[in-house]
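Reviewer has doubts. Consider these tokens.
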Amino acid sequence: MMLSTLLPDLTNKSMPDIDIKGLSLDSRKAAPGYAFIAIPGTKQHGIYYAKQAIDNGASVVLYDPSNIESFTELTGVVYIAIDCLSDQVGAIAARFYDFPSKKLSIIGITGTNGKTTCSQLLAQLLPDSGVIGTLGWGETYRLNTTENTTPDAISMQKILRHFVGQNKKTVAMEVSSHGVEQGRINGIEFEGIIYTNITRDHLDYHGSMEAYVQAKLKLLTAPGISFVVVNMDSPYAEEIVSTAPDKAKIFGFSRCHHSQQNPEILTISQVHYSLKGTECKLHWKGHSFPLHTSMVGEFNLENILAVICTLLALGKNLSDIVELISNKALAINGRMERLTDIHHSFQVFIDYAHTPDALERTLKSLKPHCENKLSVVFGCGGERDKGKRSLMGIIAAKWADKVFITNDNPRNEQPEIIINDILKECPQQKATVIEDRKAAIHQVINAANDSDIVLIAGKGHENYQEIQGVKHPFNDREVAIEALKTKKVQLC
């Protein structure tokens, strides 16, 4: 694309026009003919990496002039200063990739918990669909890795362009609060937005719960939104509904009873939870349908209700949706993933629960079905919200009979500091500290007796453990299976 086309409102007519071959925010990934986009980073401004991009072949440098002390322009390269460039990267990338979101039905999923489950389920159930999120991007059975839940603005547009080329019709996209605040979704048109729930998370970044909520609500300013799916049991439901665009239709779901004056709310009754799945009756606009799913727990039922509402918003009939879920919905990797022996003598669950709300809801879901002891293995990530650590210690001690505190991803923080923060209000008589996560998983499984349940929480699908800036291969599921084999358990 010619530079004048890429920046129609910002290019000086006397400036030599250049054919732009690609865009890059990462100087290491720049190539011949690329435009390198230099924006302020968390540690340093991107302009100080421009030489590396130019050495790799970049012919144009677009940069935000704010927060720059000084730098030297290299000869043979065009430099263009653009105010508030971070906010405009998405629009620039959208233009470069020919506005792919206009050719797709994009469903944005946000909330503290449940984003991955909802996005994966939607991608499973909708024909010709793609997914972008924590597990990666692509098709549910063939995912490419992503560095973040919501990729950067350029990567996002490039992925959407790929989906257009693959003749996809729908994209289920996880949208993180970081992604909204950092403009990664700018330039994207959404057909619908799902709000799963909003509870404490990422306060290390946002600073306060209020700022975190506002970041979530900011998603509703995106263009094109025709419907919003809302968890009506959330304390923020009213605020979400009042912030939604006037033209957007609201589809609510609730585990509680709502009067018939609210016909657009999907409700449930006759709920039965077990370790094999969930059964309930769905109620929508005077019609009722039975639902059975193999997914475990109250929180997973909420995720399924969010997905059902989304399919209703897309014009599908409830009877068809129920059949779809019964026949096609599969468990999500690392989300209440169950490992059990052929005799079901005791069971191990692996879940991504890494927030106070998620840990509590997961333990509460398992507790009623545990005939003997419920044990939990968990830790907290380093260099993240420190305030949640003691809360998770309290929750673990409240619901579990045995608490094994270990490392999560300590990153560059000392593990013993994180563990001590968790222990502050966790009764010592319940807690066992085993810093090595592999050893902790082996010990809790080795100690499990008949009718016990073990929850390994916090990392879920992750295949690494980050310690002192290095990502070491590590997967909770693989370690758990190894421990079960050591115990000479024959898995189902």
